[in-house]
Write a structure and sequence with these properties.
The chain is an alpha/beta fold and about 300 residues long. Helices cover about 25% and strands about 25% of the residues. The two termini are about 30 Å apart. The structure holds flavin-adenine dinucleotide (FAD).
């Protein structure tokens, strides 16, 4: 079985940053990813909020992070899904589709995925008006007409954020009340450019090169209507890719996000987590990078300084 000081599972912003810091700390470092390295940011057509890059495509940013990680000396295995973890002992075992590895410490950085609504046009217009991240894509729709789908805290926070940018914000929710904090709900009622449509669902997203309109259905009267919008923000929740970690004994919250402390340490010794898979509230490249750095340096201390474990 191959032995490594540290194995990082997931080569997105968090995992690649962790890789850079782990290698530079002198750790023999393996980073694995089930897809090509780079992570979710590769799906963003444009990134304008990562410091140092005023305007870069997500694909190029992902490529720059990956080549930086390789350049400092990390071994990156693309297209090698992790399929099982054994994390309870001093030696951690990472099983992949190809083989099994042993490591002194593990960083879990497998990200999360946004839940999709699954309607016609959603996949077609992804990145062309259909978005799952208000902070990421909201600024592209300044002064425009946008639609938010959802009724929980995230949908409400996104609505308030977009209300500060867009000319008009429509919110559709399939129930007749928000399932969100009272203060968020009252802040939304106070916004003159927000219109909430209860018991309403989306049937189709339409457009040409970009989103132009949606077909809505009132789920009580079954009446359909057309609404012209420039963007659809789907905010019906996120699902962390944490099932295999949970099965190995890593503690998660009620949604499935991995619980970490300020050192990115999980409930298991020598097991760290970073990025969108954790219970940290802000899910951005910048925060994933920061958490990856902390995880790598804390993992280094765990491996190299035995007194640290006490
Ligand atoms: C369309 C879109 C636009 C966005 N725009 C912005 C933006 O403009 N600015 C910004 O800051 N943020 C943006 N974000 C958010 C940003 O992409 C994430 O916050 C960031 O990528 C999180 O990094 P991560 O490393 O935690 O996870 P990810 O980047 O998701 O990386 C996780 C990696 O783990 C791998 N993985 C999962 N399961 C396994 C397994 N079993 N075995 C091996 N590998 C596995 C995945 O293949 C993936 O590569 C955007 C997100 C989306 C979807």
């Amino acid at each position: 079985m191959e032995n490594w000081d540290i194995i990082i599972i997931g080569a997105g912003s968090a995992g690649l940053s962790a890789g850079i810091y782990a290698v530079r700390s002198g750790l023999k470092t393996l980073v694995i990813d089930e897809k090509f390295a780079g992570g979710t940011i590769a799906d963003a057509s444009k990134v304008v909020n990562y410091p140092g890059f005023a305007d870069i495509s997500g694909g190029e940013l992902a490529e720059k992070m990956t080549s930086h990680c390789r350049k400092v000396g990390a071994t990156i295995h693309d297209l090698e899904p992790m399929i099982e973890l054994q994390l309870l002992g001093e030696v951690k075992v990472v099983k992949t589709s190809r083989t099994s590895y042993e490591a002194k410490a593990v960083i879990i950085s497998m990200g999360s995925h946004y839940k999709e609504i699954g309607v016609k046009g959603e996949a077609e217009f992804k990145g062309r008006g259909v978005s799952y991240c208000g902070v990421c894509d909201g600024p592209f729709f300044k002064g425009k007409k946008v639609l938010v789908v959802g009724g929980g805290n995230t949908a409400c926070i996104t609505t308030l954020y977009l209300a500060g940018l867009a000319a008009e914000v429509y919110v559709i929710h399939r129930r007749e009340a928000f399932r969100a904090e009272e203060s968020l709900v009252s802040d939304i009622s106070a916004k003159s450019n927000v219109k909430v449509m209860w018991n309403t669902e989306i049937q189709e997203i339409k457009g040409n090169q970009q989103v132009q309109s949606v077909t809505l259905i009132d789920n009580i009267t079954k009446k359909t209507s057309e609404l012209a919008v420039d963007a659809v923000f789907v905010q019906i929740g996120e699902a962390p890719n944490s099932q295999l970690a949970k099965a190995a004994g890593v503690e998660v919250d009620e949604i499935g996000f991995i619980k970490v402390d300020v050192k990115q340490q999980t409930n298991l010794q020598g097991v760290f987590a970073a990025g969108d898979i954790t219970d940290q509230p802000i899910k951005q490249v910048g925060t994933a990078v920061g958490q990856g750095i902390v995880a790598a340096l804390e993992a280094y201390s765990y491996i190299k300084r035995p007194y640290y474990r006490k």
